[in-house]
Amino acid sequence: MKFFLAFLALLTPALAQKPAAPAPAELTFPGEKLDEWHGFKRHIFQADGCTAWVVEPKAARPGHPWSWCLEFPDAFTDRCAAPALLAAGFHHVHLSVGNTFGSPAAVQHFNAFYELLTARGLAKKAVLIGISRGGLYAYRFASEHPERVAVIYGDAAVCDFKSWPGGKGAGQGSAGDWAALQQCYGFKDEAGALAYTGNPIDRLEPLAKAHVAIVHVVGDADDIVPPAENAALIEQRYPALGGTVEVIHKPGVGHHPHGLDDPAPVVKFILDHTAEK
What we know:
Elements: H1 2-11, H2 13-16, E1 33-37, E2 40-47, E3 50-55, E4 66-69, H3 82-87, E5 91-95, H4 104-119, E6 126-131, H5 134-144, E7 149-155, H6 175-185, H7 190-194, H8 205-209, E8 213-219, H9 231-240, E9 245-250, H10 264-272
Parallel strand pairs: 4-5, 4-6, 6-7, 7-8, 8-9
Antiparallel strand pairs: 1-2, 2-3, 3-5
């Protein structure tokens, strides 16, 4: 963390001189419990029938930007930018919707959570963090509500469920998750899932029109979520639609560990693409 703070001071000296923004008004939640998460104050509560939490920075950044890890918020956390973003003044949040693959029902919960947070003063555009299958959650929410998203950070992110859990390409797939996904989405059979046109790789145009910036971190040797079937397709298609995308490669690395030894490049991308949003 000390290395990131030094990087942040060099990156944004002008911002470092600005006074800290006050906390959003009424950042309390009915029935909440308080604890600490990576050294920061966390509110834990129920939102739309799901367990939710919001972590406060020590000093909020102007505009009250926030990051939202949609799945696996406690996996490789230091490597996946969230504590560094908190140190930079972002709030950080999570809503637990279970193993639902970004299904329509999950997005309904996400919408309710988003409305709750923005009503309490957080920014109108979030930074979404999609780790592994969390990529399906992040992209599904963003494609339906691109005006609510500033940046998507995908980390070994699933961008086509035919790749994972379907296993219809080079990856291993997961038969149990593939069956569960079909049930979550209400597909009658596998043919319905294979014919679906709402995967992240298929729904990029709304994001480009809304100027959502995308950054991915991939392990080039990932045989669970193969980059060629996922992030590489985003990298190929998004610029053709006028969108901004950056892919950070980890040569010889598989699906794990997620993130980077030093998440500063991801944090810089996020800061660069939230300053005006």
